[in-house]
Amino acid sequence: MATDLKPLRIGIIGYGFMGRAHSNAYRKVNQFFELGHRPVLQACSARSEDKIKAFADNWGYESYETDWRKLIERDDIDVIDIATPNNTHCEIATAAAEAGKMVLCEKPLAMNVDEGEKMLSAIEKAGVANMVWFNYRRVPAIALAKQLVDEGRIGKSFHYRATYNQDWTISADVPQGGAALWRLDVAAAGSGVTGDLLAHSIDSAEWLNGPIKRVTAKAETFVKERKHAETGEVQPVGIDDACMFLAEFANGSLGTFESTRYARGRKNFNTLELNGESGSIYFNLEDPQYLDFFEYADPATGKKTEDHLTGWRKIHVTNFEHPYMDKWWVPGCTIGYEHTFINALADFIKGLDSGTPVQPDFASALRTQKVCDAVLESAKSEQWVEIA
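^ thats the sequence. predicted structure below, dont judge the formating
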């Protein structure tokens, strides 16, 4: 690794699932990508001193704070990385931007559009580099799908369908709230599967197929009350356990989106399919090294594929020619979930090196937030809702 790289001093807030995923990316990115900056694990922050100290020791952070405000005030921090529950994103991101820090934020961007707009305004006023960790854009197979779309191999789009199903909240004995289960607490999460899972599906859909124009939705909460993990009191459940919606895209295509945490046997079943005039693509995150592709006609010549050769093609996305894979192993060797964060971080740092902002940024994530809010509004009103 080069020794003359510019230091990028990281201050991360949060020590949970995403804190670990991001920290791993900071430690590994320069081992695999040639970059002009080198992340330095400067400091981490959380309220529990015992837990954040253990996190700092495990991942190699030089110091820790128990108040995120002190982290932002420090002169030895360049980047604030927000890996905390959704209800903290707005306050932290706004304060970090006002302090002149670069800001990386977990998805969804905020609790709602109003908060997202405040965050974007602060970011734009400060002029600081920013990114939202929609890491599935960095799955090589999904990045290859984007490449096929941009090459015109799908042609005019007709249908987009997305599914994101899990099963971990089926039991009524699962509590809500606390450090581990804040995603079930509406006060911390803002929404259920819409903000947690469908936000990923929406981001991927608009990246591949363009903006969503309007939606109509149905949401359901199957378990109406759960014990709160911190207070022990049984309280109403305010998040959506399941959500389905129809979408009209600006390009005239139609979309169907489904998400639930009540699909027994599904652990992280995240799929997408796009059908167009010239071809189709299909992806399943539970089999992430493959992209299924159907080619009806050559986009360059318009010549139809010979009938005896038509059929779905299963592409093993591990060749050096595939997105990101020239940075990893030899063809045939797969990469995993953690690598998507490393790929995303590499793109962010490349943006710093080149001066070209990386996507998705706060503005792009606000688009996703608008769709999420429209979906929840439609589920309540049982009407179509336009996306501003």
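The chain is about 35% helix and 25% strand.
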